[in-house]
Amino acid sequence: MSNAVSALQGASFDGYCKVDEAGLVGMITLRGDLSSAAVAKAVKTATGADIPGQGEITEGVKGRAGWMSPDELLLIVDHAEAPNVVDAASKALANEHALVVNVSDARAVFRVTGAACREVIAKLTPADTSVMQPGMLRRTRIAQIPAAFYLEDDETAVLVCFRSVAQYAFDILSDAAKRGGEVV
Question: Which positions carry the signal peptide feature in this UniProt record (predicted)?
Fold first, then answer.
């Protein structure tokens, strides 16, 4: 069996904000009835987080749960734990109409850090980044690709996209973060 590697193996760019590929991140798509007590319990067990509301991401001791659609969550956990989380959640939801899939190796994650992280993202998306606060998650487009982003804190934006477009995402984020490109 081959060793898991992230899409860009930790690529990094230093500009007026820093852009880093986050490395291996465990990501699980959970689809089902988000009002179900069994789903809430499975999410709490997997991440320690509560079920997020629309446009939210919640944080627990073992990970995060992000609202992706009325019947879909993205669970963000330790990469090595993702298969175990899928197994446990699948068993816990065996009597529910639900789907639990490990999508870790199909996604890439980037962190944009710096006081102007919202500005860097704003250059590439139609989303109003000025209203984004920690705890909010937004599905949108970044240039020509579908993506989701949230703020870990006021100076760290996290962006998730498909692995197949990771190099493109890194390149456009890096271009948007180049020194001299600050919005004044």
Answer: none
